[in-house]
Specification:
about 500 residues, alpha+beta, 3-stranded antiparallel sheet, 19 helices, about 60% helix
Length: about 500
């Protein structure tokens, strides 16, 4: 029967946070506090500020527990949501969707207004007429309507030029602006419901992945194929289309201009301070709430894909299977072991101290930064003592290096290692530099001065680690000269 289904539905809703909040004994106090701290002004508060602002005793209510205890209870009841943004140093609280709907429901009762307003009826008529026109497939009817609209516009232009201009009465304008505020407030509430839908969809998809036996489930196949199931869902496509419209430059400019024009009208002065503040923040609130939901959508899509590609779901599936096995084993023993029977088993508790992640402070390198800017350091020095070890551990083409030195000495009386590298670049990178230093230590003349030499790195991976700008390395080495009179030794 229909009545039975309705009763079952309402009983199920009775256990949900919205109904529990409205029906609780201290509901008025809780709703009033949540509205004052997380609805009328800020929509997000860090935990430390939230704990400081909650002062029930000063309001005449004697609640014996601490603020932290009540906030923890509201989290468990589903009245608050707790999040940890990436740039935040502590967790933040915000109202749950159920709490927002409860506040709006109670506020609507307190600020009752006539439901059958002219503006609402006008919205319904305009929407129906526009729908009928946009779905009409008859070409001639659409042309006739456009011509009729053109004629009406021309008559209105003529009337305005003659001084006859129709302006909405102030009462009607106030009615319409309040209806716009109500619709916009409903829209911001819809953002929270959409975000909850994405969270539920993310959980459902993960459960399907874990519960699917084997590796060829439909969800797994789609994710391995690179499809973002959350973005491609009905809720994802609907919100993406809405968010594109919201962030469209032309639409945004038109909305901003319309808001500026409306705020300059005389009838706005008759609005209360709350409604005027809402209009001033309307564009920002829409973009902020839409951006949050869009970030959640993208984050869930990426995390779900990573959950599959990293094979993390296999470990979750294994844990899920172990829990099921433990449950079946417990059911098998339920008739053999009584609940009050001693198990004769000693469980050693861990000595680890558990703390909330919100109490951990992340290290911020910017707090330890020096007041001065970063300066370029000098090239590293290579001493002759390390040359022998490098030569012993590498295969250096000494024949090519000797040929390069002889080629230089045929044209000049002396040449340093740097002079040789300028004419014949280091084809073996650091190996060529080390080889020339080894030859110079045996056949050259060492001075007390130093010079800087450079070479290129062929290994792309090593280069990426060393520098992001180029593949050139430099070093400061002792200045050693090869002499022309010792050219015969370099054979």
């Amino acid at each position: 029967m229909k009545s039975d289904r309705a009763i079952a539905t309402y009983r199920r809703m009775r256990a949900q946070p919205l109904w529990r909040l409205l029906a609780s004994d201290n509901g008025p106090t809780v709703i009033g506090l949540l509205q004052a701290h997380l609805y009328d002004n800020e929509r997000y508060l860090p935990s430390s500020i939230m704990h400081e602002r909650k002062a029930l005793r000063a309001q005449g209510d004697d609640f014996p527990q601490t603020a932290q205890a009540y906030i923890a209870n509201w989290l468990a009841e589903g009245f608050l949501d707790r999040r940890f943004p990436q740039t935040a140093t502590e967790e933040e609280y915000e109202l749950s969707t159920a709490a927002v709907e409860a506040i709006r429901f109670v506020s609507g009762i307190d600020q009752s207004h006539s439901a059958a307003t002219e503006s609402r009826l006008a919205l319904v008529i305009q929407a129906l007429v526009k729908l009928a026109e946009d779905t009409d497939t008859d070409k001639q009817r659409r042309i006739d309507r456009l011509k009729a609209e053109q004629e009406r516009i021309e008559k209105e232009i003529t009337a305005i030029e003659k001084g006859y201009m129709r302006v909405l009465p102030q009462a009607t304008a106030l009615e319409r602006i309040r209806e716009i505020i109500s619709l916009t407030d409903d829209l911001t509430g819809d953002f929270r419901r959409v975000r909850d839908q994405f969270e539920q969809l993310n959980r459902d998809l993960r459960e399907k992945i874990i519960d699917t036996e084997g590796s060829r489930g439909e969800v797994l196949k789609s994710l391995f194929a690179g499809i973002d199931l959350i973005s491609e869902s009905d809720a994802g496509r609907t919100f993406s289309a809405f968010y594109r419209l919201l962030t469209d430059p032309e639409q945004g400019a038109a909305l901003a201009q319309a808001l500026d024009n409306v705020m300059s009208r005389d009838f706005v002065a008759d609005l209360n301070a709350k409604d005027r503040r809402f209009l001033l923040r309307m564009m920002r609130n829409l973009l902020e709430q839409g951006g949050i939901v869009n970030d959640v959508l993208q984050t869930f899509a990426r995390s779900l894909r990573h959950f599959v590609q990293s094979r993390e779901y296999l470990e979750q599936r294994r844990i899920n299977q172990l829990l099921k096995d433990a449950g079946r084993a417990a059911l098998m023993l339920k008739d053999e072991v009584k609940a009050t029977e001693a198990l004769q088993y000693t469980l050693e508790l861990t000595s680890s101290r558990l703390r909330s992640l919100s109490q951990w402070m992340l290290y911020d390198p910017s707090l330890q930064a020096l007041p001065e800017g970063m300066t370029a350091g000098e090239a590293l020095s290579i001493d002759l003592e390390s040359i022998g070890e490098l030569v012993a551990q590498s295969e250096i083409d000494f024949r090519l290096l000797k040929t390069n030195v002889r080629d230089i000495l045929k044209k000049r009386s002396q040449a340093s290692v740097g002079d040789v590298l300028e004419q014949h670049p280091a084809v073996q990178g650091l190996g060529s530099v080390v080889g020339l230093l080894a030859l110079g230590s045996r056949h050259g003349f060492k001075t007390d001065s130093y010079e800087t030499v450079s070479w290129n790195i062929d290994d792309a991976e090593q280069c990426a680690v060393i520098t992001r700008a180029s593949n050139t390395r430099s070093a400061r080495i002792p200045k050693i000269f090869f002499l022309q009179e010792k050219i015969d030794e370099l054979v």
